[in-house]
Amino acid sequence: MRIAVVGAGIIGVTSAYELAAAGHEVTVFEQGGSIAAEASFAHAGLDGAGCAVAWSPLAVAGGVLGLALRGRLPAALAPSLNPGSTRWKLKWLRANRGAAQRELHQRQHRLAAYSRACTTELTQSLHLDFERSSGVTVVSRSAADSQRLLGALAVLDQIGVRHKRLTADECRSLEPGLNPQAALHAAVHLPDEGAGNSREFAHLIKQHAQRQGVRFVFSAQVIAIQPGAQPELTVTQGTQRARENFDAVVLCTGLASRRLLAPLGLTLPLIGVSGVSVTAPLRLDEIHPHLGPASVLLDPRRGASIVRAGNRLRVSGGARIGAMSRAQEVAALKPLYRTLNEWFPGAARTAQAQQWQGASPTLPDGLPILGRSGLDGVWLNLGHGSVGWTVSCGGARVLAALIAGITPEIDTAGLGIDRFR
Ligand SMILES: Cc1cc2nc3c(=O)[nH]c(=O)nc-3n(C[C@H](O)[C@H](O)[C@H](O)COP(=O)(O)OP(=O)(O)OC[C@H]3O[C@@H](n4cnc5c(N)ncnc54)[C@H](O)[C@@H]3O)c2cc1C
After folding, report:
1. Ligand 1 contacts CB of residue 11 (under 6 A)
2. Hey, whose CA ends up nearest to atom 21 of ligand 1?
3. Which of 387, 390, 391, 392 for mutating ligand 1's site (highest number of atoms within 8 Å of CB)?
4. I want to staple 361 with a disulfide (CB 3.0 to 4.6 A). Which of 134, 227, 255, 265 is the partner?
Protein backbone atom coordinates (compact mmCIF):
# COMPACT_ATOMS: atom_id res chain seq x y z
CA MET A 1 0.00 0.00 0.00
CA ARG A 2 1.04 3.65 -0.51
CA ILE A 3 0.64 5.23 2.93
CA ALA A 4 1.02 8.85 4.05
CA VAL A 5 2.01 9.53 7.64
CA VAL A 6 1.27 13.09 8.74
CA GLY A 7 3.52 14.39 11.55
CA ALA A 8 7.07 13.39 12.42
CA GLY A 9 7.13 13.40 16.21
CA ILE A 10 8.13 10.20 17.98
CA ILE A 11 4.74 8.73 17.06
CA GLY A 12 4.96 9.53 13.33
CA VAL A 13 8.56 8.33 13.02
CA THR A 14 7.97 5.00 14.76
CA SER A 15 4.74 4.50 12.80
CA ALA A 16 6.53 5.16 9.50
CA TYR A 17 9.23 2.67 10.43
CA GLU A 18 6.78 -0.11 11.34
CA LEU A 19 4.68 0.48 8.22
CA ALA A 20 7.76 0.34 6.00
CA ALA A 21 8.99 -2.78 7.80
CA ALA A 22 5.61 -4.34 6.97
CA GLY A 23 6.29 -3.72 3.28
CA HIS A 24 4.37 -0.48 2.61
CA GLU A 25 5.57 2.49 0.56
CA VAL A 26 5.55 5.33 3.12
CA THR A 27 5.76 9.13 2.80
CA VAL A 28 5.97 11.30 5.94
CA PHE A 29 4.76 14.90 5.77
CA GLU A 30 6.07 17.20 8.50
CA GLN A 31 5.26 20.89 8.71
CA GLY A 32 8.45 21.67 10.63
CA GLY A 33 12.05 21.47 9.48
CA SER A 34 13.02 18.31 11.36
CA ILE A 35 11.67 15.36 13.29
CA ALA A 36 10.78 15.30 17.01
CA ALA A 37 10.81 19.08 17.30
CA GLU A 38 7.48 19.63 19.10
CA ALA A 39 6.16 17.62 22.08
CA SER A 40 8.81 14.95 21.46
CA PHE A 41 11.74 17.36 21.84
CA ALA A 42 13.05 17.51 25.43
CA HIS A 43 10.60 15.67 27.68
CA ALA A 44 11.67 13.60 30.67
CA GLY A 45 12.04 10.39 28.70
CA LEU A 46 10.62 8.01 31.32
CA ASP A 47 9.70 4.80 29.56
CA GLY A 48 8.19 2.41 32.09
CA ALA A 49 4.64 1.24 32.64
CA GLY A 50 4.74 1.82 36.42
CA CYS A 51 5.76 5.47 36.18
CA ALA A 52 3.25 5.98 33.38
CA VAL A 53 0.42 4.73 35.51
CA ALA A 54 1.30 5.65 39.08
CA TRP A 55 3.22 8.92 38.66
CA SER A 56 2.12 10.45 35.37
CA PRO A 57 2.08 14.26 35.65
CA LEU A 58 -1.68 14.18 35.19
CA ALA A 59 -2.15 11.56 37.90
CA VAL A 60 -0.25 13.87 40.25
CA ALA A 61 -2.14 16.92 38.99
CA GLY A 62 -5.32 14.89 39.31
CA GLY A 63 -5.23 15.22 43.07
CA VAL A 64 -5.11 18.98 42.60
CA LEU A 65 -7.79 18.80 39.92
CA GLY A 66 -10.16 16.86 42.11
CA LEU A 67 -9.76 19.38 44.90
CA ALA A 68 -10.29 22.26 42.49
CA LEU A 69 -13.51 20.91 41.10
CA ARG A 70 -14.82 20.23 44.58
CA GLY A 71 -13.92 23.82 45.49
CA ARG A 72 -11.23 22.71 47.94
CA LEU A 73 -8.16 23.85 46.05
CA PRO A 74 -5.44 25.52 48.11
CA ALA A 75 -5.09 29.07 46.71
CA ALA A 76 -1.37 28.58 46.05
CA LEU A 77 -2.10 25.82 43.52
CA ALA A 78 -4.85 27.58 41.63
CA PRO A 79 -2.61 29.05 38.88
CA SER A 80 -1.81 25.53 37.60
CA LEU A 81 -5.38 25.18 36.36
CA ASN A 82 -6.76 26.78 33.27
CA PRO A 83 -10.39 27.78 33.87
CA GLY A 84 -11.22 27.48 30.14
CA SER A 85 -10.98 23.69 30.22
CA THR A 86 -13.49 22.82 32.94
CA ARG A 87 -15.52 20.54 30.65
CA TRP A 88 -12.41 18.60 29.76
CA LYS A 89 -11.48 18.31 33.44
CA LEU A 90 -14.91 16.91 34.24
CA LYS A 91 -14.48 14.32 31.49
CA TRP A 92 -11.08 13.49 32.92
CA LEU A 93 -12.47 13.05 36.42
CA ARG A 94 -15.33 10.87 35.14
CA ALA A 95 -12.91 8.63 33.21
CA ASN A 96 -10.64 8.28 36.22
CA ARG A 97 -13.15 7.10 38.82
CA GLY A 98 -12.89 3.84 40.80
CA ALA A 99 -13.18 0.65 38.77
CA ALA A 100 -13.02 2.58 35.47
CA GLN A 101 -9.64 3.91 36.47
CA ARG A 102 -8.35 0.43 37.33
CA GLU A 103 -9.33 -0.71 33.84
CA LEU A 104 -7.49 2.28 32.32
CA HIS A 105 -4.40 1.43 34.34
CA GLN A 106 -4.46 -2.15 33.03
CA ARG A 107 -4.80 -0.94 29.45
CA GLN A 108 -2.03 1.61 29.77
CA HIS A 109 0.20 -0.94 31.44
CA ARG A 110 -0.49 -3.53 28.72
CA LEU A 111 0.43 -1.07 25.96
CA ALA A 112 3.45 0.32 27.82
CA ALA A 113 4.86 -3.13 28.68
CA TYR A 114 4.39 -4.33 25.10
CA SER A 115 5.98 -1.14 23.84
CA ARG A 116 8.98 -1.54 26.09
CA ALA A 117 9.52 -5.04 24.68
CA CYS A 118 9.25 -3.64 21.11
CA THR A 119 11.73 -0.84 21.91
CA THR A 120 14.18 -3.36 23.38
CA GLU A 121 13.82 -5.63 20.35
CA LEU A 122 14.43 -2.73 17.93
CA THR A 123 17.37 -1.48 20.00
CA GLN A 124 19.00 -4.91 19.85
CA SER A 125 18.19 -5.88 16.28
CA LEU A 126 19.09 -2.47 14.78
CA HIS A 127 22.04 -1.92 17.18
CA LEU A 128 20.66 1.45 18.27
CA ASP A 129 22.95 3.40 20.54
CA PHE A 130 21.15 6.19 22.42
CA GLU A 131 21.24 7.72 25.91
CA ARG A 132 19.46 5.47 28.38
CA SER A 133 19.21 5.06 32.15
CA SER A 134 17.96 2.00 33.85
CA GLY A 135 16.10 1.88 37.18
CA VAL A 136 13.86 4.53 38.72
CA THR A 137 14.09 5.62 42.35
CA VAL A 138 11.04 7.33 43.81
CA VAL A 139 11.98 9.34 46.90
CA SER A 140 9.91 10.43 49.86
CA ARG A 141 10.98 13.29 52.07
CA SER A 142 9.02 12.49 55.21
CA ALA A 143 6.97 9.79 56.91
CA ALA A 144 3.85 11.51 55.56
CA ASP A 145 5.26 11.32 51.99
CA SER A 146 6.02 7.62 52.48
CA GLN A 147 2.47 7.10 53.65
CA ARG A 148 1.20 8.87 50.53
CA LEU A 149 3.37 6.61 48.36
CA LEU A 150 1.37 3.60 49.53
CA GLY A 151 -1.47 4.43 47.12
CA ALA A 152 0.94 4.40 44.19
CA LEU A 153 2.48 1.13 45.41
CA ALA A 154 -0.96 -0.45 45.51
CA VAL A 155 -1.38 0.56 41.84
CA LEU A 156 2.00 -1.03 41.00
CA ASP A 157 0.91 -4.23 42.78
CA GLN A 158 -2.38 -4.24 40.88
CA ILE A 159 -0.73 -4.03 37.47
CA GLY A 160 2.22 -6.23 38.42
CA VAL A 161 5.17 -3.81 38.25
CA ARG A 162 8.21 -5.00 40.21
CA HIS A 163 9.29 -2.60 42.97
CA LYS A 164 11.34 -2.66 46.16
CA ARG A 165 11.05 -0.41 49.18
CA LEU A 166 14.35 1.10 50.28
CA THR A 167 15.58 2.71 53.47
CA ALA A 168 17.25 6.10 53.14
CA ASP A 169 20.69 4.42 53.38
CA GLU A 170 19.85 1.87 50.69
CA CYS A 171 18.62 4.70 48.50
CA ARG A 172 21.85 6.65 49.00
CA SER A 173 23.93 3.65 48.00
CA LEU A 174 21.93 3.36 44.76
CA GLU A 175 22.22 7.10 44.15
CA PRO A 176 25.57 8.05 45.73
CA GLY A 177 25.40 11.59 44.34
CA LEU A 178 22.43 12.50 46.54
CA ASN A 179 22.89 15.51 48.77
CA PRO A 180 23.77 14.06 52.23
CA GLN A 181 21.84 16.96 53.81
CA ALA A 182 18.66 16.40 51.80
CA ALA A 183 15.61 15.32 53.77
CA LEU A 184 15.22 11.72 52.68
CA HIS A 185 12.89 9.43 54.57
CA ALA A 186 12.71 6.38 52.31
CA ALA A 187 12.39 5.38 48.66
CA VAL A 188 10.96 2.85 46.26
CA HIS A 189 13.06 1.37 43.48
CA LEU A 190 11.58 0.19 40.17
CA PRO A 191 14.35 -1.91 38.60
CA ASP A 192 12.54 -2.60 35.31
CA GLU A 193 11.78 1.04 34.52
CA GLY A 194 14.06 3.76 33.23
CA ALA A 195 14.44 6.63 30.81
CA GLY A 196 15.79 7.18 27.33
CA ASN A 197 16.46 10.05 24.98
CA SER A 198 13.46 9.69 22.70
CA ARG A 199 14.60 12.41 20.31
CA GLU A 200 17.90 10.62 19.74
CA PHE A 201 15.97 7.36 19.34
CA ALA A 202 13.66 9.01 16.79
CA HIS A 203 16.64 10.18 14.71
CA LEU A 204 18.11 6.67 14.68
CA ILE A 205 14.77 5.09 13.74
CA LYS A 206 14.33 7.69 11.00
CA GLN A 207 17.63 6.56 9.43
CA HIS A 208 16.44 2.95 9.46
CA ALA A 209 13.06 3.98 8.08
CA GLN A 210 14.83 5.80 5.23
CA ARG A 211 16.84 2.64 4.53
CA GLN A 212 13.48 0.87 4.18
CA GLY A 213 12.49 3.46 1.59
CA VAL A 214 10.48 5.93 3.73
CA ARG A 215 10.41 9.41 2.15
CA PHE A 216 10.40 12.37 4.60
CA VAL A 217 9.04 15.66 3.27
CA PHE A 218 9.75 18.63 5.55
CA SER A 219 8.19 22.11 5.70
CA ALA A 220 5.15 20.36 4.24
CA GLN A 221 1.91 21.19 6.00
CA VAL A 222 -1.16 19.08 5.38
CA ILE A 223 -4.04 21.55 5.28
CA ALA A 224 -6.90 19.28 4.21
CA ILE A 225 -7.84 15.62 4.04
CA GLN A 226 -10.41 14.15 1.71
CA PRO A 227 -11.37 10.68 3.01
CA GLY A 228 -12.15 7.92 0.52
CA ALA A 229 -10.95 4.65 -0.96
CA GLN A 230 -7.90 6.66 -2.04
CA PRO A 231 -7.80 9.47 0.54
CA GLU A 232 -6.41 12.75 -0.73
CA LEU A 233 -4.11 15.16 1.08
CA THR A 234 -3.72 18.82 0.27
CA VAL A 235 -0.19 19.84 1.20
CA THR A 236 1.44 23.25 1.19
CA GLN A 237 5.19 23.63 0.95
CA GLY A 238 6.41 27.22 0.79
CA THR A 239 4.31 28.86 -1.92
CA GLN A 240 3.43 25.51 -3.52
CA ARG A 241 0.18 23.69 -2.97
CA ALA A 242 -0.29 20.10 -4.15
CA ARG A 243 -2.84 17.30 -3.88
CA GLU A 244 -1.81 13.67 -3.59
CA ASN A 245 -3.74 10.43 -3.21
CA PHE A 246 -2.71 7.45 -1.11
CA ASP A 247 -4.17 4.08 -0.19
CA ALA A 248 -4.24 5.14 3.47
CA VAL A 249 -3.42 8.20 5.57
CA VAL A 250 -2.22 7.99 9.19
CA LEU A 251 -2.51 11.08 11.37
CA CYS A 252 0.27 11.37 13.96
CA THR A 253 -0.25 15.09 14.35
CA GLY A 254 -0.39 15.28 18.15
CA LEU A 255 -2.15 18.40 19.39
CA ALA A 256 -2.76 19.73 15.88
CA SER A 257 -5.05 16.78 15.12
CA ARG A 258 -8.14 18.62 16.36
CA ARG A 259 -7.68 21.30 13.73
CA LEU A 260 -7.27 18.77 10.92
CA LEU A 261 -10.18 16.56 11.96
CA ALA A 262 -12.78 19.17 12.90
CA PRO A 263 -13.66 20.06 9.25
CA LEU A 264 -14.35 16.33 8.74
CA GLY A 265 -16.90 16.34 11.56
CA LEU A 266 -14.65 14.62 14.06
CA THR A 267 -14.34 16.60 17.30
CA LEU A 268 -11.94 15.05 19.77
CA PRO A 269 -11.59 16.03 23.46
CA LEU A 270 -7.86 16.54 22.90
CA ILE A 271 -6.09 19.07 25.07
CA GLY A 272 -2.49 20.08 25.71
CA VAL A 273 -1.05 19.36 29.15
CA SER A 274 1.93 21.66 29.42
CA GLY A 275 5.16 20.99 31.23
CA VAL A 276 8.74 22.18 31.26
CA SER A 277 12.25 20.77 31.41
CA VAL A 278 15.77 21.95 32.06
CA THR A 279 18.71 20.13 30.48
CA ALA A 280 22.22 20.96 31.67
CA PRO A 281 25.71 19.48 31.33
CA LEU A 282 26.91 17.57 34.37
CA ARG A 283 29.88 19.04 36.20
CA LEU A 284 32.51 16.37 35.59
CA ASP A 285 34.73 16.26 38.64
CA GLU A 286 37.44 13.65 39.36
CA ILE A 287 37.36 14.38 43.10
CA HIS A 288 33.58 13.86 43.27
CA PRO A 289 32.91 11.21 40.61
CA HIS A 290 29.34 10.65 41.77
CA LEU A 291 27.96 14.12 41.10
CA GLY A 292 24.45 13.99 39.70
CA PRO A 293 21.97 11.14 39.40
CA ALA A 294 23.16 7.65 38.55
CA SER A 295 19.85 6.95 36.84
CA VAL A 296 16.36 8.40 37.38
CA LEU A 297 15.10 10.10 40.53
CA LEU A 298 11.41 10.84 40.87
CA ASP A 299 10.22 13.30 43.50
CA PRO A 300 6.41 13.02 43.65
CA ARG A 301 6.14 15.83 46.23
CA ARG A 302 7.54 18.24 43.63
CA GLY A 303 6.05 16.41 40.62
CA ALA A 304 9.56 16.36 39.14
CA SER A 305 11.96 13.83 37.68
CA ILE A 306 15.74 14.15 37.48
CA VAL A 307 17.21 11.97 34.77
CA ARG A 308 20.78 11.27 33.80
CA ALA A 309 21.23 11.54 30.05
CA GLY A 310 24.85 10.73 29.20
CA ASN A 311 26.97 13.66 30.36
CA ARG A 312 23.91 15.79 30.99
CA LEU A 313 20.98 15.73 33.31
CA ARG A 314 17.39 16.69 32.69
CA VAL A 315 14.91 17.91 35.29
CA SER A 316 11.33 17.84 34.17
CA GLY A 317 7.96 18.62 35.69
CA GLY A 318 4.83 20.71 35.68
CA ALA A 319 1.39 19.68 34.48
CA ARG A 320 -0.75 22.60 33.46
CA ILE A 321 -3.97 21.72 31.73
CA GLY A 322 -3.98 23.99 28.70
CA ALA A 323 -1.34 26.37 27.38
CA MET A 324 1.35 28.04 29.49
CA SER A 325 2.12 31.72 29.21
CA ARG A 326 5.76 32.89 29.41
CA ALA A 327 5.16 33.99 33.02
CA GLN A 328 3.67 30.59 33.89
CA GLU A 329 6.63 28.89 32.23
CA VAL A 330 9.05 30.88 34.36
CA ALA A 331 7.01 30.00 37.45
CA ALA A 332 7.04 26.30 36.48
CA LEU A 333 10.80 26.30 35.90
CA LYS A 334 11.68 27.70 39.32
CA PRO A 335 10.70 24.59 41.34
CA LEU A 336 12.72 22.43 38.95
CA TYR A 337 15.92 24.33 39.75
CA ARG A 338 15.00 24.19 43.43
CA THR A 339 14.39 20.41 43.31
CA LEU A 340 17.69 19.87 41.49
CA ASN A 341 19.49 21.96 44.06
CA GLU A 342 17.87 20.05 46.92
CA TRP A 343 18.86 16.60 45.66
CA PHE A 344 22.05 17.21 43.63
CA PRO A 345 23.48 20.66 44.54
CA GLY A 346 26.25 21.84 42.21
CA ALA A 347 25.94 18.75 40.00
CA ALA A 348 25.05 20.61 36.80
CA ARG A 349 26.33 23.64 34.94
CA THR A 350 23.01 25.43 35.12
CA ALA A 351 24.45 28.56 33.45
CA GLN A 352 24.53 26.44 30.27
CA ALA A 353 21.06 24.98 30.82
CA GLN A 354 18.55 24.70 28.01
CA GLN A 355 14.96 25.28 29.03
CA TRP A 356 12.01 23.79 27.20
CA GLN A 357 8.26 24.00 27.35
CA GLY A 358 6.08 21.37 25.69
CA ALA A 359 2.46 20.26 25.64
CA SER A 360 1.39 16.61 25.63
CA PRO A 361 -1.63 15.90 23.40
CA THR A 362 -3.96 14.39 26.00
CA LEU A 363 -7.37 12.71 25.96
CA PRO A 364 -9.49 12.53 29.12
CA ASP A 365 -8.78 8.84 29.77
CA GLY A 366 -5.02 9.25 29.21
CA LEU A 367 -4.93 6.57 26.49
CA PRO A 368 -4.19 7.26 22.82
CA ILE A 369 -6.53 6.73 19.88
CA LEU A 370 -5.03 3.95 17.84
CA GLY A 371 -6.71 2.59 14.71
CA ARG A 372 -9.49 3.54 12.30
CA SER A 373 -10.92 7.06 12.44
CA GLY A 374 -14.30 6.07 11.04
CA LEU A 375 -13.48 8.13 7.92
CA ASP A 376 -12.59 6.06 4.85
CA GLY A 377 -8.87 5.53 4.51
CA VAL A 378 -7.94 7.70 7.51
CA TRP A 379 -6.17 6.09 10.50
CA LEU A 380 -5.19 7.66 13.80
CA ASN A 381 -2.23 7.30 16.17
CA LEU A 382 -2.54 10.31 18.47
CA GLY A 383 -3.34 11.68 21.92
CA HIS A 384 -0.65 9.87 23.92
CA GLY A 385 -0.67 12.24 26.87
CA SER A 386 2.33 11.93 29.15
CA VAL A 387 3.40 8.55 27.72
CA GLY A 388 4.02 9.19 24.02
CA TRP A 389 7.58 7.93 24.12
CA THR A 390 6.73 5.09 26.50
CA VAL A 391 4.13 3.59 24.17
CA SER A 392 5.47 4.74 20.78
CA CYS A 393 7.09 1.56 19.46
CA GLY A 394 4.31 -0.74 20.64
CA GLY A 395 1.58 1.57 19.40
CA ALA A 396 3.25 1.82 15.99
CA ARG A 397 3.39 -1.97 15.73
CA VAL A 398 -0.27 -2.30 16.72
CA LEU A 399 -1.20 0.28 14.08
CA ALA A 400 0.77 -1.55 11.35
CA ALA A 401 -1.01 -4.79 12.27
CA LEU A 402 -4.45 -3.13 12.18
CA ILE A 403 -3.77 -1.56 8.77
CA ALA A 404 -2.60 -4.95 7.46
CA GLY A 405 -5.79 -6.55 8.81
CA ILE A 406 -3.76 -8.73 11.19
CA THR A 407 -4.74 -9.23 14.85
CA PRO A 408 -2.29 -7.18 16.96
CA GLU A 409 -0.14 -9.02 19.50
CA ILE A 410 -1.96 -7.32 22.39
CA ASP A 411 -5.58 -6.70 23.24
CA THR A 412 -6.46 -3.25 21.88
CA ALA A 413 -9.76 -2.84 23.74
CA GLY A 414 -10.28 0.75 24.84
CA LEU A 415 -7.84 2.27 22.33
CA GLY A 416 -10.33 2.95 19.53
CA ILE A 417 -12.12 6.16 18.62
CA ASP A 418 -15.50 4.56 19.44
CA ARG A 419 -15.03 5.52 23.10
CA PHE A 420 -15.46 9.21 22.19
CA ARG A 421 -18.51 8.84 19.96
C1 LIG B 1 7.12 18.18 30.20
C2 LIG B 1 6.78 16.89 29.51
C3 LIG B 1 7.31 15.72 29.99
C4 LIG B 1 6.99 14.51 29.38
N5 LIG B 1 7.57 13.36 29.82
C6 LIG B 1 7.34 12.19 29.19
C7 LIG B 1 7.96 10.99 29.64
O8 LIG B 1 8.71 10.99 30.61
N9 LIG B 1 7.70 9.84 28.98
C10 LIG B 1 6.85 9.80 27.88
O11 LIG B 1 6.63 8.73 27.33
N12 LIG B 1 6.26 10.93 27.42
C13 LIG B 1 6.48 12.11 28.06
N14 LIG B 1 5.86 13.25 27.62
C15 LIG B 1 4.85 13.15 26.55
C16 LIG B 1 5.46 13.10 25.15
O17 LIG B 1 6.32 14.19 25.01
C18 LIG B 1 4.35 13.13 24.11
O19 LIG B 1 3.35 12.17 24.40
C20 LIG B 1 4.88 12.77 22.72
O21 LIG B 1 6.03 13.53 22.42
C22 LIG B 1 3.82 13.00 21.65
O23 LIG B 1 4.39 12.69 20.42
P24 LIG B 1 3.65 13.01 19.05
O25 LIG B 1 4.52 12.47 17.98
O26 LIG B 1 2.23 12.55 19.14
O27 LIG B 1 3.55 14.61 19.02
P28 LIG B 1 4.61 15.67 18.50
O29 LIG B 1 5.97 15.32 18.94
O30 LIG B 1 4.10 17.01 18.86
O31 LIG B 1 4.56 15.46 16.93
C32 LIG B 1 3.50 15.88 16.12
C33 LIG B 1 4.11 16.37 14.83
O34 LIG B 1 3.09 16.61 13.87
C35 LIG B 1 3.46 17.74 13.12
N36 LIG B 1 2.23 18.26 12.50
C37 LIG B 1 1.12 18.69 13.14
N38 LIG B 1 0.18 19.09 12.25
C39 LIG B 1 0.71 18.90 11.02
C40 LIG B 1 0.23 19.13 9.70
N41 LIG B 1 -0.99 19.63 9.49
N42 LIG B 1 1.03 18.81 8.66
C43 LIG B 1 2.27 18.30 8.87
N44 LIG B 1 2.79 18.08 10.11
C45 LIG B 1 2.02 18.37 11.16
C46 LIG B 1 4.06 18.67 14.15
O47 LIG B 1 4.87 19.66 13.54
C48 LIG B 1 4.85 17.69 15.01
O49 LIG B 1 6.18 17.54 14.56
C50 LIG B 1 6.13 14.48 28.23
C51 LIG B 1 5.62 15.67 27.75
C52 LIG B 1 5.92 16.87 28.37
C53 LIG B 1 5.34 18.13 27.82
Report:
1. yes
2. 40
3. 387
4. 255
Distance in angstroms (rounded) separating the CA atoms of residues 97 and 91: 10
Residue 84: band (very low, low, confident or very high) from pLDDT cuts 50, 70, 90: low
Q: How far is the CA of 255 from the centre of ligand 1 (A)?
A: 8
Q: Contact 105/52 with Cβ under 8 angstroms?
A: no
Residue 61 pLDDT > 80, yes or no? no
pLDDT score, position 263 = 96
Does residue 95 line the site of ligand 1, with CB under 6 A? no
pLDDT > 60? residue 81:
no
Q: What angle do CA 375, 381, 386 make, to 5 degrees?
A: 140
The residue whose CA has the least distance to atom 30 of ligand 1 is: 39
The neighbouring-strand residues paired with 361 are 272
- Name which residue sits closest to atom 33 of ligand 1, judged by CA: 7
65 Cα to the center of ligand 1, angstroms = 23
Task: Give the residues across from 316 on adjacent strands.
Answer: 277, 305
